[in-house]
């Protein structure tokens, strides 16, 4: 049976999960769009609850979608519904509802020796790029705090390019609790700041267990949160630029921390 | 006299320079928006031809705008016109027409020892971020080739955060001519590729005079352009990510090349 109406309750639920943060938080689910993300979700054993694919998509992406058909609820939808529900510029007609995986501080393990803390990052595209970069350089635990943008926002999910299924995402509202956990567990924390008085990135030898704390794109870290960190680091600029783009600065720091 | 009509020829010219690439290329001018960019343009001695400021902006940013009034043509406009002309989310009511500064290969000097080549970069935001990063790490010459996005596109200009006034921008359509110049002038070129057979970035000692060549966000460099480079380099990934975001990858490479 092909779902032909956007008033079908399953489609209404899908659309609501895409558009509403509240719905995502209440249900504990989120939506991924596109065949590549679905392939990554299945490969990484994410909990895929339901897949929706347009008639054209089923023809085009038969191998991944056959896998999906055997793994979870599966609904065929019309190309027209796919276009209406889509959040993408060129919709592929593939959507899936996936269980979100929020962890608390108790999810930290002894092997989490390099940690990224994102403190009040506000732009979904930046957040996605930061998660993708962390995954690429080998950081496996990321902590979100202090009103960070929601990690299961569709734009964040898309920008991670699948990294979201490989990372351990830890959410804890207050950075103070996180820094308390770091102190108790001998994780040295570094505040990334734009301040020539701070230690220069090129001079730092990162300890075995450490965390890098990145603040808001426009305003950086609050004075309070900087003071909660063990050390402050900065990237020395050679031009007259005041600062690097937040994702770029964080990428360079993560690169140095893990290489 | 305050300009009150958007049909005023000066306003029409301003609006056309913002919206039309053809107009920018024909006139040799482009537009900057915002008080910070204007301040940078004046500080870096860019050729500012005319400034347009709304009545509220004149009150708010009097120090920079007084400088501008003494340096070039100056027009007061209504807040309403400022809003209509603006390309920004929260318009500050400050615009300036600036002479663009395109250079050919003959602009390379002997001191250009670290060069960034952008080959077919298509996204304006990425291009702006790449220029800002180059400036921050101390690369002063950037070459654009092979249908790179126009450097004076308003979104590029905004993303550079002023770096556009400090960099030497060289435009040359064909990468073949550029690689010819590199060969004749003993500049070693490195193609950035996603290929585990290439040299790993962590293993490379960059020679004194070298250029890093970055390709299109989606498709990378063409086989032909890779073969025109002296060496190929890659960033080894630790996660399962296929690749880093183009601006992030280029930033990490520029960082290693200049530190």
Describe this entry's structure for a reader.
In chain A, the strands form 2 sheets. Chain A has a 7-stranded parallel sheet with strand order 8-7-6-11-9-12-10, sandwiched between helices. Chain A has a 5-stranded mixed sheet with strand order 1-4-3-5-2, sandwiched between helices. Chain A has 259 residues and is α/β, with parallel strands linked by helices. Chain A is built from 11 helices and 12 strands. Chain A binds chain B through residues 129, 132-133, 135-138, 140, 161-163, 166, 202, 235, 237-245, 247-248, 251-252, 255, 258-259, and chain B through 129, 132-133, 135-138, 140, 161-163, 166, 202, 235, 237-245, 247-248, 251-252, 255, 258-259.
Question: Which properties best describe this structure?
Answer:
homodimer; 259 residues; alpha/beta; seven-stranded parallel β-sheet; five-stranded mixed β-sheet; 11 helices; 12 strands; 22% strand
């Amino acid at each position: 049976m092909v779902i032909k109406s956007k008033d079908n309750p399953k489609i209404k639920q899908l659309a609501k999960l895409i558009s509403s943060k509240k719905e995502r938080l209440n249900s504990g689910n989120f939506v991924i769009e596109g065949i590549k993300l679905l392939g990554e979700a299945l490969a990484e054993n994410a909990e895929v609850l339901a897949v929706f694919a347009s008639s054209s998509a089923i023809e085009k992406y038969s191998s991944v979608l056959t896998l999906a058909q055997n793994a979870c609820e599966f609904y065929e939808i019309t190309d027209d519904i796919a276009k209406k529900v889509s959040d993408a510029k060129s919709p592929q007609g593939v959507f899936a509802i996936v269980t979100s995986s929020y962890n608390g501080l108790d999810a930290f393990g002894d092997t989490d020796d390099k940690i990224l803390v994102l403190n009040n990052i506000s732009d979904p595209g930046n957040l996605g790029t930061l998660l993708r970069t962390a995954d690429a350089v080998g950081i496996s635990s990321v902590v979100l705090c202090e009103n960070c943008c929601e990690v299961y926002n569709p734009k964040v999910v898309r920008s991670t390019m699948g990294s979201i299924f490989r990372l351990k995402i830890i959410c804890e509202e207050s950075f103070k609790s996180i820094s308390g956990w770091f102190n108790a567990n001998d994780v040295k924390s570094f505040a990334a700041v734009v301040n020539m008085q701070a230690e220069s990135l090129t001079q730092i030898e990162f300890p075995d267990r450490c965390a890098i704390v990145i603040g808001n794109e426009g305003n950086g870290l609050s004075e309070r949160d900087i003071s909660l960190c063990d050390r402050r680091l900065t990237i020395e600029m050679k031009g007259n630029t005041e600062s690097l783009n937040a994702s770029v600065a964080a990428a360079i720091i993560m690169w140095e921390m893990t290489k």
